[in-house]
Amino acid sequence: LNRGITMSVACDWLITDIRIASLTDNGAPYGQILDGVIAIRGDALLYVGEAAGAPIFAARQVLNGGQRWATPGLVDCHTHLIFGGNRAAEFEQRLQGIDYQQIARQGGGINSTVNATRAASETELLSSAMARAQRLLAEGVTTFEVKSGYGLDVANEVKMLRVGEQLAHQLPATVCRTFLGAHALPAEFKDSADAYIDHVCAEMIPLIAEQGLATAVDVFCESIGFTPAQCERVFVQAKAHGLAIKAHVEQLSDLKGAVLAAKYGALSVDHLEYLAPEDVPVLKEHGAIAVILPAAYYFLHETCKPPIDALRAQGVKMAVATDLNPGTAPMASILLAMNQACVLFGLTPEESLRGATHHGALALGLKKKGVLAAGMDADLLLWDVSHPAELAYAINFHQPRYIWQAGIQRLASGAIIEPAALSQKESV
Ligand SMILES: [Zn+2]
Asked: What is the mean pLDDT of each run of 10 residues along the chain (428 residues)?
């Protein structure tokens, strides 16, 4: 026991004999550290580095990682996982040849989910959202975002955000909540989109800010959503209430929404299939994260791809997320989103892992997550892989062997492992 002349450093967890994909910019691929040690104290990383030269730790619990790879906990920075009903019937329609815009104009699409979400109680919404979130947690997601946007009136938008608050309380995960009132035009405001935007700006945003129900505001800037001018009014009001900005832009057409959102200081601009390469420097200039959502592209059988080469060449940080939603991305798998980002859009496995960790965290404004380094949050995973590229490469092969969220070890199910029970088990 590390007694003697050398002072030992107290920590809660010491994880030895691991390879670390730190995703820091240490010059090595994946920020790798091949003979690594991680020490956790409380909810933060105390030490991440080579075993050689590490301090001597006095740890409450020690785990020999058996040469497994450590990565940061996964971050799914764009989901709509709170919703009522599902859209399997619409899926069937689309396969009979009706396109998404046409379905939306016929009152299907988002509005059918709005009706089901309004009809559901808070308890029902929480129960179905919890089940979807648990699929993400089982894959090693330690932080995810949820958006409102299927309520589209004060009571139902608030109901959705309260469900998000409950997810944050009940799950061992960091849950960021985004207000997406400007998602679709509700039936009550048919043909008066400006009046609905007035309502979003005058009634919803002040209330949501005052009650602390969301930290960001999002919009759907699209021909079937809202015009850039309408989105701009939402951005102005969000900023006035101290809320961050995110935006669904250039998914189905190029309305220059990404440039607009970036100029308003958006944390992220999301989708970007129709982003013009010449607009990419504006994203770089304003530091907006480009969130790539390949599942919607896949599901809609889209053919126009986001300008990945231009984003990469300009050094715009790219995040990868599921977009989990009932209409265009019924997919509760961040690892599959990483695979799709590689296969469909040509991201490298390293870019996709950074996209689902560090850059996903930045897209949520979280600066202490997504990288394994001293002082960062202790959200980390140990994987039974021989190289981190395997995470994006293989479909439905992998689940983390060990998970810590905020320094607490949990099972893939989300169940917390009590330290006492653990040491008892080890002593048997
Ligand atoms: Zn979305």
From this structure: 70 98 97 98 98 96 97 98 93 86 78 95 97 97 98 98 97 97 95 97 98 98 96 98 98 98 98 98 98 96 96 98 96 98 98 98 98 98 98 96 96 77 43
No. of helices (H) and no. of strands (E), the chain? 17, 16
Side-chain-side CA neighbours of residue 217 (13 Å)? 29
SS3 312: helix
Quote the CA–CA distance of 167 and 173 in Å, as a whole number: 8
End-to-end CA distance of the chain: 21
Ligand 1 center from residue 248 Cα (angstroms): 6
Burial of 300 (0-12, 13-18, 19+ CB in 10 A): middle
Tokens at 102, concatenated: 């046409």
Cα–ligand 1 centroid distance for 23 (angstroms): 26
- What gap in Å lies between CA 375 and CA 369, rounded to an integer? 10
**The dihedral sign for the CA sequence 381, 48, 363, 316:** negative
Strand pairing category for 9-21 and 32-41: antiparallel
Q: 80 CA distance to ligand 1 centroid (A)?
A: 6
User: How far apart are the C-alpha atoms of 357 and 353, rounded to whole Å?
Assistant: 6
Tell me the whole-structure pTM to 2 decimals: 0.95
A 10 A CB-CB count for 272 gives 27
**How far apart are alpha carbons 368 and 379 in whole angstroms?**
10
Ligand 1 centroid vs 374 CA: distance in angstroms? 33
Distance of CA 149 from the midpoint of ligand 1 (Å)? 10
